[in-house]
Amino acid sequence: MYNPQISDEQRQLVDTARKFTADVIIPAAPEYDESETFPTEVFRQAWELGLMNVEIPEDYGGLGLGTVEGCLIAEELAYGCPAIATSMMCNHLGALPLIVGGSEEQKQRWLGRLVENFEFISYACSEPDAGSDVAGMKSRLVAKDGGGYVLNGQKRWITNAGQASSYTGFATIDPALKHKGITAFVVDRKVSGVSVGRKEKKLGQRASETCDVLFDDVELGPENIIGEPGRGFYVAMEVFDKSRPMIGASCAGLIRRCLDESRNYALERKTFGVPIAQHQAIQMILADMAISYAATRALYLQAAWEVDNDVKRTMTSSLAKCYGADAAVKAATDAVQVFGGYGYTREYPVEKLYRDAKLLQIYEGTSQVQRMVIARNLLRS
Fold first, then answer.
1. Closest listed residue to residue 141, CA positions, set 181, 91, 197
2. What CATH architecture is 8-116?
3. Treating both helix axes as pointing N-terminal to C-terminal, what angle do 350-357 and 232-268 enclose, rounded to 10 degrees?
4. Which residues are catalytic?
5. Quick count: other Cβ atoms within 10 Å of Cβ 127?
6. Which of 288, 279, 268 minimizes the C-alpha distance to 334?
7. For residue 130, pLDDT beyond 90
8. Which residue in 18, 47, 58, 370 has its CB near the most CB atoms, within 10 A?
9. Architecture of domain 233-379
10. pTM of the model
């Protein structure tokens, strides 16, 4: 039975992540955002501390933690910097196709690398004309005589792409088959024909690097194909079911940061002779943030529990991601409003939170796509 209370062991994980966030992430985040620099040393410290790749099974050298634990960590990291949290979570996202559909040999090889070495693996799904429309992708896998495939295509908006040592991705063996032609694969960055495009200049989450990944006549053997050819769409959907609760957790972390910053400022800033916290208009904003945080946390914890207990959770994961993202954008907008003119400057952290929040409504399925998923589940007979 679902229990929203966390255990003593889970509380210790939260405490570790919270201390790392306070000591390492929060002091460094503004500089990395301003310079748009990938914070490699921050990630290295997180990896050494055991805060990355936490859900890799013990059989492959990992901690074997559940989605609930991964989400609790993600909330703390996003409280400090949503961009840094995104890049750390995307290592898990990149590993998920292997965890979901990989062979024993693939898991030993590719997941083992992430545990033994400090390196990144990117999830290459989106394309210039196929973001949320996974079935519309144009990257092609053409079978070779004697076995194997030749991969060609372009992937867009790929987190950590310029830093990754390997990629999991998807391409079609036949566009006419639509979703039934999608096939999952894994490939090393050093393979001939794999290259990375320029780093995108982004509104927010600037410490998280985003690039294109290009595949030009890349030769893949059967050992690079994850699962059965033509079954990759189902791998991708299972991956999103498992990863979206973590986005909800990031939303919760950002909302809680907005609430804390706004509350502290409201108690200090005075207008008309009293702290603005005494004005009812400000109190309503703070109350709404508290409500949003509690609801988002409850949704992501339930969705994560359902993942860990193998409950069908497509709708719950979408609820957590959709509600959380919308609530995070509103909380960040309201935080800037509480700070007034100061909130619009880089002197205070809410300006960055405002820019960082928007991406939560876009990546891993937009808020509109989440509503489509929710509606389909509601209307399914």
1. 181
2. Orthogonal Bundle (1.10)
3. 160
4. 364
5. 21
6. 288
7. no
8. 370
9. Up-down Bundle (1.20)
10. 0.97
